[in-house]
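Why does residue order matter? Because the sequence determines the fold. Keep that principle in mind as you read this record.
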Amino acid sequence: MNWIDYIKAELFPEDYLIIIEAIGLENTIKLAQALPSVYFYLKSPDKLFKPAKIKYILESYKKSGPKKPFNPRRMALETGLSIREVYDIIKERKAFNSVNK
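Structure:
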């Protein structure tokens, strides 16, 4: 046993309790040790993950064809974006590609 074994969740401030609930006590301790005295801001998941969602949609669109049609509704459900956003992503990519040809 070492001193870390004496760390209990109830010893942490409220903000840390939210982190402990999300990733567990052990990972919170690792995070605190890796980033001592570092203040950081976590972006909204919508903003943080949107580039990956866009890439996923564009790759799915690129792979689509007559035997495997692109389904905007399915893409919207999978990514949590609206159907309109899915269409806009495809439209923007088409416009970009036509300008850069």
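The chain has a mean pLDDT of 91.
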